[in-house]
Amino acid sequence: MVILPKPNCTDGELNEITTLLETLGYSVHISKGVERTVIGAVGAPDADKAAAIQRLEALPQVDRVVPVLKPYKLVSRDFQPNNTVVRVGSVCFGDGSLSIMAGPCTVETPEQLLSTARAVKDAGAHVLRGGAYKPSTSPYGFQGLGEEGLRLLSEAREETGMPVITEVMDPRDVELVSAHADILQIGARSMTNFSLLKEVGAARRPVMLKRGMSSTIEEWLHAAEYLATHGNTEILLCERGIRTFETATRNTFDVNAIPVVQSLSHLPVVADPSHGTGRRALVAPVARAAVAAGADSVMVEVHPDPSSALKDGAQALTFADFRRLVPELRAVAAALGRPMAISD
Amino acid sequence: MVILPKPNCTDGELNEITTLLETLGYSVHISKGVERTVIGAVGAPDADKAAAIQRLEALPQVDRVVPVLKPYKLVSRDFQPNNTVVRVGSVCFGDGSLSIMAGPCTVETPEQLLSTARAVKDAGAHVLRGGAYKPSTSPYGFQGLGEEGLRLLSEAREETGMPVITEVMDPRDVELVSAHADILQIGARSMTNFSLLKEVGAARRPVMLKRGMSSTIEEWLHAAEYLATHGNTEILLCERGIRTFETATRNTFDVNAIPVVQSLSHLPVVADPSHGTGRRALVAPVARAAVAAGADSVMVEVHPDPSSALKDGAQALTFADFRRLVPELRAVAAALGRPMAISD
Amino acid sequence: MVILPKPNCTDGELNEITTLLETLGYSVHISKGVERTVIGAVGAPDADKAAAIQRLEALPQVDRVVPVLKPYKLVSRDFQPNNTVVRVGSVCFGDGSLSIMAGPCTVETPEQLLSTARAVKDAGAHVLRGGAYKPSTSPYGFQGLGEEGLRLLSEAREETGMPVITEVMDPRDVELVSAHADILQIGARSMTNFSLLKEVGAARRPVMLKRGMSSTIEEWLHAAEYLATHGNTEILLCERGIRTFETATRNTFDVNAIPVVQSLSHLPVVADPSHGTGRRALVAPVARAAVAAGADSVMVEVHPDPSSALKDGAQALTFADFRRLVPELRAVAAALGRPMAISD
Amino acid sequence: MVILPKPNCTDGELNEITTLLETLGYSVHISKGVERTVIGAVGAPDADKAAAIQRLEALPQVDRVVPVLKPYKLVSRDFQPNNTVVRVGSVCFGDGSLSIMAGPCTVETPEQLLSTARAVKDAGAHVLRGGAYKPSTSPYGFQGLGEEGLRLLSEAREETGMPVITEVMDPRDVELVSAHADILQIGARSMTNFSLLKEVGAARRPVMLKRGMSSTIEEWLHAAEYLATHGNTEILLCERGIRTFETATRNTFDVNAIPVVQSLSHLPVVADPSHGTGRRALVAPVARAAVAAGADSVMVEVHPDPSSALKDGAQALTFADFRRLVPELRAVAAALGRPMAISD
User: Is the model more confident about B105 or about D23?
Assistant: First the structure.
């Protein structure tokens, strides 16, 4: 790391810094310029770095500490140069193909789920999404069907052959949800729920980790590192929009994040234009954009009748909308030399 | 609520809107202007409103839905005009007095905790803070002493007589933490952990709810409403800074939020200038500002030797810093006619 | 508009509101619900609305004022349903074709500009960009060659036949810049420079208006309305990234804004992925995304030797980068049924 | 500065970096760690740094460049350790005293301005504010009385003896506005209007520079450096709220910025809680907070009848509000040992 002392730092204060660095196991190089001094410190093992940085920052004579190494490791492309490929049935994420995940925001009834599952499969979707446990900002909002919803998802998989992705919100539910889901979803509101990350990290199921609505890309990769250090490396990273000052859309879909994450990490990237925009009319153009930017997969919300949806109908595509979208995504992918993923 | 149809909405489409509203139990008033039509809807019971708004927003001919009533109730000043006063031992929050909570970010050792507890009590603190379970962005960071940390906090309370506040991060730990803490803290990263909110809502302990780092004030009050609907109305709301584009400070302390929350809610407001700034030198001026803006309580981090702290030493006050701060806060409060809270 | 009085508003206070509304020329409809009252006001002429809203908001008994009509008019799709097509030589913006604008951030030398102009033209660019007046955050930074840079741009146009776009920063320079440029650019830092907007509005030159780095889409359209009310309706709107908390990129390219603006306005939309990302490696994927989202044109920075560039070399494409990018953009456009624009 | 090459940087690529550094006049120190290499570069003169950083960032093998020195100089406390004291008549800014600037948002009529001037002077204000040229987001909004407004301000000064502050928006108006104003105001929307900064920098009048609504503190100090390098060092820095995701207030008043700026710069700091909150009821608590945080001066908007104001009535204090506020600010200042400024 690099330590920048304050401009008026005395020799005695400089010594305090180097003494602390040496105590922490670093070797120290000092460069004295005309106006400022720069301290380089190299050599200490990984696990101590975050604490070391905090201790150095706490010294009053230190202006800034600049870390040199990335703070995450297992999920980093420096550590593993080749793409991770996550396989769920015959669908591959990260092998260059484009896959589509679709389904209702929330599992409401057997008919609603099954009709949607059939419609999205017929139109070309690879994975069925649907929420059984729903995070709700308001305690008065619909919180999902819970275990009953999970059972309906299992039935829809049996009926259609599509793998199923659904959210888990509570560390106590990981085992139950794993019994029904092919991919566990960690929602944006749970990205910093470290207890949940640890439990899902210990599960033997691929996991899709949504970016928190105000999380930096670095924090998102830290959260993925939690999963990896607890044993789960089958991780999909899902960009779903970040919170900004703009109020014309529900969130600001951070399309930059797709190539940034692909350069920093070997993990596949999923785009969620439904939450990324919050408005039906914007889902198709932003889904196309995500594919053009290189997303490995796109997840969209579809409902048989959005105006009767219990949640987020404003961003749900109709069946007809979805049937129009799939060939557009296929065409954009093909233009860039990418095939569609293979369904079962 | 008020519904604004799109400009070119036909009479048939208007009828669909009013039919849906009537189905949902609303009575409907239509005002046709020269350029636009406005639909007013009144009368449906509380619990259906969020879902109703979402269903209306999902209609393609609807441009916007404007809620009229606030989406939270129990925590709202419309519902309860008088301040809630939360009592913890002899310390009162919300009665006009100013209280101070202080202690280390993290419980590290018996000596570190006890020496800090004694120092802050002597200087005028009312409540001892200290983390036993620590949210850590990185899986390699220090995660706290856990149960051992709780025991040390209990011992510090016995020794000094100060009530104790500490964070609970996992719904499975609520019972254990409640056995040791006088106030349960819900951290910023947990504000949308709805499973945790429900468990803490069912606990019989006052709770301090930190604002999420990208939560609007409305979402923060929604989270408080979760606690209240599950039975716990002894809630302190803690402003601890929000995430903005500014990088000179760790967070941007939202001083506006103090009077805004006091106008919208009857709950006491705590300010956390340590996290709100992230830098020792800024803690005192921002703590004074929070008191001048009307905060009921101030919480600050104090450490015997910040450069040896395992976490967040850069924002920890030394004992000497804290001894200088307390009389400043007392003077600002007195200037505005407010006494200090009473210690045991 | 809709006025929401405070919950405890008395009849006398309601009367004050309706009296003010009637004085301002509105007819008033009152809906009294069980818990809240809603006032609808229709009929006053356009120009008074903003002031009327401000006067109503200033009444202490008013909780909120909700405007119903959009605050801009000439640039709105409600006012003009069909796309505006801006023609610059044989290049059309807004007719469904995709055009590409390319060139150096800053005009540095005759050789640098001419070699870049030839290279981008050969590779398929339609318009040459280059800055003669450069906004520089620091007074010590390079501020451009000024009039000499304009002359070099004119020479490059003569030599290559490509129309030229360049920024004007000062209302006193509009005439001079108009003598050399085919399209006037208003930069992000100037979007709220209302004196400049008025002068450029009075110029007889197409104009590209960049979105301010923290401007909402509504504010951006307000700025375009300034141009239109002063007589200039040949406006291109350029999304160039907004400021958010994310620091991995220079800005966050707001891909949502492309379809949002196209739904709200009839004006063509240009994407600037160079400023939208700030990093060379991200320019191509985000440029492709912008085309897939429906942008009418893409503007990118290209330099013969980025590491010798006087400004923004980190986001400049090399000639080879640009030659790889053009066929990708052409392929994405073709996949969505869109041809390239026609060059002279 | 410190240069961090990419992890896989070859020796040949390292050489390219050091060659460029040496060409630019730097001496170079290389520290090779086990995993990463760090390059320190010291010694080149001030004016080349920004360009040097940009050129280094443009090298593909460079991961990051970390500047060591602050990019501004004349306004920095490193350059001038003692506070600048700006004198306007008998009012001093920066000498430890607290001053108050008050008046209407906009000059509307002689009566409106004079009655307000008298009222705020009687209540204890030191400087009269009032806008003659008004930035208006919408072209249909009120743009101020212009020169007539300036004349009314001059008359109000003669009548009351109070110095006058008013905004200048256009570089062509600097001379005229300087003939009437004691302090020139540069508004938030003009902070990056570099032509204006240069003209005002050349004027012989104290200037108050408002922070741009999405400007970092560093960018704000850069803008002040423009004024200083053009000759004007009588600069007041005005925090007026920044743009964030929070919509409950017009802006988020960044109270942290007050002590941050005071540590980085020797210039006095003014707080504008009227724009910082946008709501009358929040102005007093946030004004008190600003004083408690150490602001040298507070500027507030006052109107004889806010609901008839042509602009921003919602944030205007009434005369009675202002009379209540002044003693509160005086009491907070006194509690911290600070006197009020001296009026003429």
Answer: B105
Task: Pick the residue from chain C with its C-alpha nearest to B37.
Answer: C68
Residues D147 and D227 in one domain: yes
**Residue C60: inside a domain:** yes
**Under a CB-based contact definition with an 8 Å cutoff, are residues A116 and A104 in contact?**
yes
- Report if residue A75 sits inside a domain: no
> What is the count of structural domains for chain B?
2
Candidate from A34, A68, A244 with C-beta closest to D42: A34
Judged against a pLDDT cut of 90, whether residue B30 lies above it is answered with no
Chain-chain contact of C314 with D57 (C-beta, under 8 angstroms): yes
The series of mean pLDDT values per 10 residues for chain C, 344 residues long, is 88 93 87 80 69 90 87 92 96 98 97 98 98 92 94 98 98 98 98 97 96 97 96 97 96 98 98 97 98 98 94 94 98 98 85
Q: Are residues B161 and B41 in the same domain?
A: no
Asked if D51 has any chain A CB less than 8 Å from its own CB, the reply is no
Same-domain pairing of B164 and B308:
yes
Contact between residue D121 and residue D344 where contact means Cβ atoms under 8 Å apart: no
CB contact under 8 A, D7 and A247: no
- C327 CA to centre of own chain: 26
Helix orientation angle between B319-335 and B110-123, rounded to the nearest 10 degrees: 30
Region of A331 (left: φ > 0; alpha: ψ -120 to 50; beta: rest) is alpha
Phi-psi region of D229 (alpha: psi -120 to 50; beta: other; left: phi over 0): alpha
A2, HSE (Cβ side, Cα atoms, 13 Å): 26
Tell whether the model's pLDDT for residue B46 goes beyond 60: no
The pTM (predicted TM-score) of the whole model is 0.95
**How close B46 gets to chain C, by Cα (Å)?**
11
Q: In the beta sheet, which residues pair with residue B101?
A: B127, B299
Let me know: does D144 contact D106? Beta carbons within 8 Å. Answer: yes
Q: Do A259 and C218 touch (CB under 8 A)?
A: no
Residues B308 and B227 in one domain: yes
The reply to whether A158 falls in a domain is yes
Residue A10, classed as helix, strand or coil, is: coil
Residue B179, exposed/middle/buried by CB under 10 A (0-12, 13-18, 19+)? exposed
Structure tokens at B192: 């949308």
The enclosing domain of A206 has a CATH number of 3.20.20.70
Both A320 and A232 in one domain: the answer is: yes
Element (H, E) at D271: strand D269-271
Residue B114 CB neighbour total at 10 angstroms: 16
Beta-bridged to residue B2, according to DSSP, are B40, B66
pLDDT at A38: 85
Q: Do the domain assignments include residue D77?
A: no
D58 and D106, same structural domain? no
For chain B, the first-to-last Cα distance in angstroms comes to 49
One domain, residues C111 and C191: yes
Question: CB pairs below 8 Å between A and B: how many?
Answer: 133
Dihedrals φ, ψ of C30, to 5°? Answer: -110, 130
Report phi then psi at D199, rounded to 5: -65, -45
- For D300-325, give one letter per residue: b (16+ CB within 10 A) or e: bbbbbebbebbbbbbbbbbbebbbeb
Return the SS3 of D162: coil
Whether residue D102 is found in the same domain as residue D56:
no
CA distance A18 to B197: 45
Q: Which residues pair with B165 in a beta bridge?
A: B129, B183
Residues 31-50 of B with CB under 8 A from A: 46-47, 49-50
**A230 contacts A276 by C-beta, under 8 angstroms:** no
If we measure between CA atoms, which residue out of B78, B59, B66, B19 comes closest to residue B40? Answer: B66
CATH code for the domain of C25? 3.30.70.1140
Residue D12: domain span? 2-66
pLDDT tens digits for A156-202? 999 999 999 999 999 999 999 999 999 999 999 999 999 999 999 99
